[in-house]
Design brief:
Elements: H1 2-22, H2 24-30, E1 41-46, E2 94-99, H3 100-111, E3 123-135, H4 145-159, E4 178-198, H5 205-225, E5 228-236, E6 240-243, H6 245-250, H7 259-273, E7 280-287, H8 294-308, E8 315-320, H9 329-336, E9 343-348, H10 353-362
Helix pairs in contact: 3-5, 5-10, 7-8
């Protein structure tokens, strides 16, 4: 019976997986499941999966296959039902919990994303303590109770002081045994993402929601590729500041735009907190392409060329279409870095554009 249940559960998960793959683009563009994200699971609404069940009738004498009737006679057990309210439940949404790792696999398969290969020596070593033996000395917190008891029992039996009718075991100092451990160093690839977003007056609620949706899927994929992933957030208008995640997605600002303020702060964070030989670095910047002027754009290009592009795995710029933004900045980047492989740009005109934007950003496997 247990095996049959396991088979049925596995089959159900395969059905759910297939439905998620079929509807993945809708989930990505609508962003409805982001609010249901847990630490390791996300709840996804799955429509139109029929769960087999018995339906019981009213147990009347006259029913389908009973009584008189002729070929072609409509079946209506309760008589004329035109205009009457129904008493049966309608179609419902079934919510299933899907591990984020599984969601990342589905995303990778559907968008044909290559696995990421960490660059160069950008790995760090973590320490892992493993208990490997028993010693006669050590701290009391690591005393091995069972081994201590066995040593005391052997000593009392050998000394002839053990009484089976009164089996009292009293360990002495020579009986005590302690766990010992060995520290091993494990190489582990780590990564940091820095999200930057323009929160000036030209970036509205819809544009910020697009950024929020896309960053969720970027996070999901990168977390499947790295054991440890740190995330930092920068917002900017004419000035930049680092904020927490909630502030990043809900801050409402007004005023002008100086993109160089965000790029400079991003570079400062790298210099202060991350050794470029040990970290895989992924900056993502989202804006509507409106900047304060040519002088600041030239400053942006300078910061990218000298401080950011030489150390990152890739720098991704996503330009979200806005009724108030000029959209000029992406053109300036393409003109300044026509052959730079580590600079990836994407234009996101609406929610439908999120799907292709993710594929553009993550499709190179950097």
């Amino acid at each position: 019976m247990a095996r049959k249940i396991d088979q049925d559960h596995s089959r159900f998960r395969q059905i759910v997986r297939g439905r998620i793959k079929k509807e993945l683009k809708k989930y990505i563009t609508q962003g409805e499941l982001i609010g249901k994200k847990g630490r390791h699971l996300v709840s996804i609404p799955i429509p139109r999966i029929e769960i087999p069940r018995f339906r019981f009738g009213s147990n009347k004498a006259q029913g389908v296959g009973q009584g008189e009737g002729e070929e072609g006679t409509p079946i209506d057990a309760d008589g004329d039902s035109v205009g009457r309210a129904g008493d049966q439940p309608g179609e419902h949404m079934l919510e299933v919990d899907v591990p984020l790792e599984e969601l990342a696999k589905i995303l990778g398969e559907e968008l044909e994303l290559p696995n990421i290969l960490p660059k160069g020596k950008r790995t760090i070593s973590t320490q892992k303590e493993r208990y490997t033996g028993i010693y006669k000395a050590g701290p009391e917190s690591l005393r091995h109770v069972k081994r201590t008891y066995k040593e005391a029992l052997k000593r009392q039996i050998m000394a002839g002081t053990y009484d089976p009718d009164n089996p009292v075991i009293v360990p002495i100092r020579e009986d005590k045994r302690y766990r010992s451990w060995k520290v091993t160093r494990i190489p582990q690839s780590n990564a940091v993402i820095i999200y930057m977003m323009d929160v000036s007056g030209s970036m509205g609620t819809e544009q910020k929601e697009i950024v929020r949706t896309e960053s969720f899927w970027i996070d999901t994929w990168l977390r499947s590729q790295y054991k440890e992933l740190e995330t930092r957030y920068i917002v900017h208008d004419a000035a930049a500041k680092e904020v927490d995640q909630d502030t990043f997605f809900h801050l409402k600002e007004a005023g002008g735009t100086k993109i160089s303020s965000a790029l400079s702060l991003c570079a400062d964070i790298f210099d202060a907190d991350y050794d470029v030989e040990e970290w895989n670095i992924y900056p993502f910047h989202f804006s509507d392409g409106d900047n304060w002027g040519g002088d600041d754009t030239r400053r942006c290009i300078e910061v990218l060329r000298e401080r950011i592009l030489p150390i990152v795995n890739m720098f991704c710029y996503g330009q979200v279409k806005s009724a108030y933004g000029s959209g000029q900045f992406i053109k300036e980047l393409k003109n300044a870095f026509p052959d730079e492989e580590r600079l990836v740009t994407s234009e996101i005109n609406d929610r439908e554009g999120i799907y292709e934007s993710i594929k553009t950003f993550l499709g190179k496997g950097n």
